[in-house]
Design brief:
The complex is a heterodimer of chains A (244) and B (333). With 244 residues, chain A is mostly beta strands. Chain A is built from two helices and 17 strands. Helix content of chain A is 9%, strand content 34%. In chain A, strands 2, 5, 8, 10, 11, 12, 15, 16 and 17 form a nine-stranded mixed sheet that branches. In chain B, strands 14-1-16-15 form a four-stranded mixed sheet. Chain B has a two-stranded antiparallel sheet with strand order 2-9. In chain B, strands 3-4 form a two-stranded antiparallel ribbon. In chain B, 25% of the residues lie in helices and 17% in strands. The chains are: A mainly beta (244), B alpha+beta (333).
Chain lengths: 244, 333
């Protein structure tokens, strides 16, 4: 009987922090602040009003990092998306966040609608058209516990003591709220949130409607590029930013 | 390590290539949205391309304790699910014949009966395939979500659909390419060894429906089970591609019969119908010893003796072919 080596996932977990620990560990957060506009526009206008609704709001370029290959079997991937532009506006009881980034490949489809009738009662079923495509996506992560002060959870989905909330949008599958307590623990809460996405001239523009987050809250951003087979931890990520 | 382990033995000398197992599985488990192209059980012609095409050559599995890379098979490799235009032909009065759409270009036994050449003679045989429910599943190791797990009570490998996020690392890792992605649900699926049937004391659907009676099911560690006897006592069944390192729990009695015509006086290995090298490719070098054992059993019966191994392989009734231990039956019908 063969002795198994250290599981790859575990070795990747050991490897990763040493590479990006300085940016991701549980630590006090200073700098990297994000200004939040107090907007008089309505949440609906900011969400659905198009680019002009956001023109007055200051934009911040947030640097994106690329995770190293997580598993030995992963193909390496180039840094194709190095910046995400972020605008934030506090409106009533919501925080609206606009993420914009350049991505020359539009990886999104419209999935066929699945009828409400049970499949066994139908002659025709909805079919899988492709099994090897991945879709563009983005997410905003912040600590699930409010008032956690200057302690930022691990960028790798927090930990048991510092759970995180993740507002995830996928260009094909839509918006979903997730929670996590460390790598590999992400689960879908079953809730979604209002989101508006457009893709034009090689650029994604995605507006997230989050619950209001108090000043001092840490937030981090992630972008997935479908054509680079991004999913899971294979993605672009920012370090923690602090809301002003 | 699981407390017990279900295993299946398939006698390739008896497979008709009729796909009854495939249809039994399909009607029971993959007649849903997104599953049209999936055949958790398929029967393919060997030598041949296989399903998905070239699955045996693309990678996956273990080497020196490390997972091996592999591309994801494409839908062209599996074959797109096709439908027939019955409505137009039968109800709308259209003149064109009933045709499949999209045009079929691959499938779960696309190169049926093509086979290969052994000197100047054509040969082929059928290889029914399900998930191997490996002892060291590469799929399980590859999943960052820990969505795959081996059932402690019987070793069956399943995917927790609540945990699966459709990342497809498992598909890449499986050297047998027996996990499938459902684009409608956004999750991956696989053979579940019919555990809901086993828990009711019913054998797997593919085995129950097989007209060739070539499948044997039981616990590998149960001395009374036919799979224990075939694999561990008589030692006449082998796993597929043992060098992939996953230790499959589906075993095959290699095809050695019928003999070639006009090979009087020669042993099977001297003048095999299926080239021994090809069997070594599929089942490893141990296959030569297995064929030697099988031929010895054959010779024994032809000399008027009795072979327990061959009597078992005949598998006259369900009690001989299957043994589901009562302690693993959870639902009494």
């Amino acid at each position: 009987m063969r002795t198994r080596q250290l599981p790859l996932v575990a070795s990747a977990v050991l490897l990763l922090p040493s590479m990006i620990w300085a940016q991701t560990g549980v630590k006090s957060v200073a700098g990297q602040s994000l200004s939040v506009a107090a907007s008089s526009a309505s949440a609906d206008n900011l969400l659905n009003g198009g680019p002009s609704a956001w023109n007055q709001i200051a934009l911040k370029h947030v640097a994106l990092n690329r995770t190293p290959p997580l598993y030995d079997t992963d193909e390496p991937a180039a840094l194709e998306i190095s910046i995400v532009d972020v605008r934030l506006a506090r409106v009533s009881k919501n925080l609206l966040v606009q993420l914009s980034w350049r991505d020359p490949t539009h990886d999104a489809i419209t999935l066929a609608e699945v009828p409400n009738t049970p499949p066994e009662t139908r002659f025709r079923k909805v079919q899988t058209e492709a099994d090897d495509r991945f879709f563009d996506a983005a997410a905003i992560m912040f600590p699930a516990k409010s008032g956690s002060g200057a302690i930022a959870p691990s960028l790798q989905m927090g930990d048991a003591e510092h759970p995180v909330e993740i507002y995830y949008w996928n260009a094909t599958r839509g918006a979903m709220v997730m929670q996590a307590q460390g790598r590999g623990t992400t689960w879908r809460t079953g809730q979604n949130f209002p989101v508006n996405s457009t893709y034009q001239n090689g650029q994604w523009n995605v507006i997230f409607e989050l619950p209001d987050l108090p000043a001092g809250t840490t937030v981090a951003f992630a972008v997935w590029n479908g054509s680079q087979k991004d999913r899971d931890g294979r993605k672009y990520f920012s370090v923690w930013q602090v809301l002003e | 390590m699981s407390k017990h382990h279900y295993a299946m033995v398939m006698d390739l000398n008896k497979c008709l290539g009729c796909q009854t197992c495939t249809i039994a599985c399909k009607k029971l488990w993959t007649d849903r949205d997104g599953t049209g192209y999936m055949y958790w059980n398929n029967v393919e012609t060997r030598p041949g391309l296989g399903y998905p095409r070239q699955w045996d050559r693309v990678g996956g599995g273990w080497k020196d304790g490390a997972l091996q890379p592999s591309p994801l098979p494409t839908m062209d490799d599996y074959g797109h699910a096709w439908e027939y235009n019955y409505e137009q032909r039968l109800y709308e009065g259209k003149k064109q014949p009933v045709m499949p759409s999209p045009e079929p270009k691959s499938g779960c036994n696309w190169d049926e009966d093509v086979g290969g050449m052994n000197a100047d003679e054509n040969y082929f045989f059928y290889l029914p395939r399900i998930c191997n429910h490996c002892t060291y599943p590469a799929c399980l190791e590859a999943c960052p979500r820990k969505a795959l797990y081996k059932r402690d009570e019987d070793g069956i490998v399943v995917i927790d659909q609540d945990r699966c996020q459709g990342y497809r690392y498992c598909i890449k890792a499986c050297p047998y390419k027996k996990i499938y992605f459902n684009e409608v649900t956004g999750k991956s699926e696989k053979c579940i060894f019919c555990y809901p049937r086993l828990e009711k004391g019913e054998v797997n659907a593919c085995a129950a429906q097989c007209p060739g009676r070539l499948r044997f099911v039981g616990l590998l560690d149960d001395p009374e089970s036919p799979v224990h006897k075939l694999v561990l006592v008589h030692k006449i069944a082998l796993p597929l591609f043992p060098e992939k390192g996953t230790q499959p729990n589906v075993f095959y009695v290699p095809p050695f019969n019928p003999p070639k015509r006009e090979n009087y006086g020669k042993s099977i290995q001297e003048d095999p119908r299926v080239p021994i090298d090809y069997l070594i490719y599929l089942f490893g070098p141990e296959v030569k010893a297995v064929i030697t054992r099988l031929e010895a059993e054959l010779n024994k019966t032809q000399a008027g003796g009795r072979s327990e191994a061959l009597q078992l392989l005949i598998g006259r009734d369900a009690e001989t072919r299957y043994r589901i231990p009562p302690q693993l039956v959870q639902i009494q019908l």
